Amino acid sequence: MIEDDxxxxxxxxxxxxxxxxxxxxxxxxKEGLEKVIADPPDLIIxxxxxxxxMNGFDIAEVLKKDPRTKSIPxxxxxxxxxxxxxxxxxxxxxxLVKTDTxxxxxxxxxxxxLDNK
Amino acid sequence: xxxLSYALVRPYIILFGIFLLYFMSGKFGLMxxxxxxxxxSIWPPTGIAIALFMIYGYRFWPAIxxxxxxxxxxxxGSFITSLGIALGNxxxxxxxxxxxxxxxxxxxxxxxxxxxxxxxxxxGGVSTLIxxxxxxxxxxxxxxxxWPTYPIVWLTWWLGDMGGALIYAPVxxxxxxxxxxxxxxxxxxxxxxxxxxxxxxxxxxxxxxLPFPYLITAIMLWIAFRFGSxxxxxxxxxxxVYGEMATLRGNGPFFVGSTDLNHALIxxxxxxxxxxxxxxxxAAEVSERKRAQQSLSDREHRFRAxxxxxTDAVTLVDISGGILYVSxxxxxILGYTQAEFEGTNGFTYVHPDDIPVAQKILGExxxxxxxIASIELRLKNHGGDWIWIEAIVRNLLHDxxxxxxxxxxxxxxxxKELEMAKNEFLMIAAHELRSPLAxxxxxxxxxxxxQEKIPPGIADKIERLYxxxxxxxxxxxxxxxVSRIIQGDIPNAPQPISLETVIHKExxxxxxxxxxxxxxxxxVIPKKxxxxxxxxxxxxxxxxxxLLSNAIKYNTPQGSVTITLSTxxxxxxxxxxxxxxGIPVKEQDKLFTKFFRTSNAISxxxxxxxxGLFIVKSYVIGWGGTITVRSPTIPxxxxxxxxxxxxxxxxxxxxxxxxx
Lengths: 117, 660
What we know:
The complex is a heterodimer of chains A (about 120) and B (about 650). Chain A has about 120 residues and is mainly alpha-helical. Chain A has helices at about 5-15, 30-40, 55-65, 85-90, 105-115; strands at about 45, 75-80, 95. In chain A, strands 1-2-3 form a 3-stranded parallel beta sheet, sandwiched between helices. Chain B is about 60% helix and about 10% strand. Chain B has helices at about 1-30, 45-55, 60-75, 80-105, 115-140, 150-175, 185-205, 215-250, 260-310, 330-335, 340, 355-365, 415-450, 455-485, 500-510, 510-515, 535-555, 600-605, 610-620; strands at about 315, 325, 370-380, 385-395, 405-410, 495, 520-525, 535, 560-565, 570-580, 625-630, 640-650. Chain B has 19 helices and 12 strands. In chain B, the strands form 3 sheets. Chain B has a 5-stranded antiparallel beta sheet with strand order 2-1-5-4-3, with helices on both faces. Chain B is α+β, with helices and mostly antiparallel strands and about 650 residues long. The interface between A and B is medium-sized, with 21 and 21 residues.
């Protein structure tokens, strides 16, 4: 999970642990990108508005172009509700707006993306 | 002290002045008649009395009376006769002024031909009857005139007074009203040329070189047309004195068919009376026209200054947006010169994003005469930057003098940038609020889904937190929607929509919410095929949700909400009718404005942001539709509201032909 709000890391770590999914988190985009390339995960939960000069779109674009990471599903979980089209055009696999989605929905989406892999 | 004593003596000075003037004018009149004392010529004192009464008022009559008395006494010697004549002279002046003030605009009698004619009739013809009658009768009674000559002496007297009234009074009154003598250099030259020609002509006519009085009439037109009433009256006076002196010497064109001086003098006086009245009328007419022209050009100048010096730019455009005129302020606002801007089409300066709305407004304004609309849009300035302007568009096509659409505009870039910055701040803040709101929501969801048992006292408190969290999420969503509407950036991802499906889905989804408010919710959708519209699903869903949730929230227990779908040839209509608290009629037009909540909604303490209907209306208008409200709808009560949305069938999906 690349997300600048540490509270959300904790929340999803708790929620996903129940389903035997281990969540690793980074705060900035750059750091996240390095981590993904060094040790590719099964799924990336990505925020759009991120500190450190790289936003979610930048990261998704890099990952979807890189043959090593291109097959990793990306789920965007953001505050922006008007960027779905942009995100999908980059190749992002799903797009959810934080406040419009329940915890169960997010977990369901994560599981679905992992199963499809 | 000195001033006070002057104020006290002033009337006596005037009194004495009038007396002296009147007395001297009599002597002057007599001087002209010295060759033949019995034939009285034009009588200046009559005109002087009229002028003095007009200027100083009736109360100075003793001066006139005394002047006349002493003057007549000095020639006639008989006190009683002089008394009679003086009485007649005084009364003549008073009556003349009274009548002229009443019927011919008083001192302003020489400004219009109609008043001049009335002055000639009343002061020249009527009031002089008094003096002639009392005067000649007094002379006859004093045996100074033989009764058989009464009629001819009376006529001479009457005509003499008439001449005095029509020649001396106008000169004095016009000079009194307009004492300033300042001519332009060219006018001085012209006046000099006129005087030379005039005197030469007088000489030619009265020396019988060319004994035709109409020659004089011709030259009088010159001064009447070019120099106005006062100078015309002066020229008439000169003519009168000249003509009289010549005639008394036995010269001039008026000795026609007889050498009788009296006869010639009567003809001269008639001539003078006619020439005085006509040329003064012409002069008045000419100056009236000049005044009217001046006031028209003053007014035009004033309006031109208003338009040209205004900080707003004023443009006249034709129905296609072509610029017919622009005021000079365009240079200050956009940097173009008038010449650069005129003749071009206004739309070429409009920002591409603003062209549709600008065309729409112009079209609407053109459709109906006298309509006014305002619009904010961006124009490209001379340097290529976008400038925000606010324009007022007005249809004056039917006004034959304008025959254009008038567009006034001013720059509002600064205000607009501030508004945008404010709006942007609002959007950032709203977006940022979503993370903590989501964190709260998910935390509570985790608590509910955890296996641990929650103490009963805590569960309902978390429940309440959860509801508040939901309300805040809705508020944030609405703030974002409003911000986007203000920014003119409404998300639009049209897709084929079946309204029946959307309505059924929302009615089902809101069932629980309706039940919690003890309200029955039902949909009435005729079993038929409704047209498929091509619109943004999220937004149409939001619109229907909003109307339904309002109808439920502002309802009464055991109330009902009915949503109906219907269609005609041009529109599809969604109607939401409730049995709720109603909306006061006077609040209905404010219903769709931002942050407005009806008084009865506030008093009922119902949750609400006052943003929902603003959003709904903005979306509906964006689709080219209309939204109307009717309330109350329940007979004999102030309850029940019906909201009706009408969407044009132009939103229908055009069936795409499949090419095989």
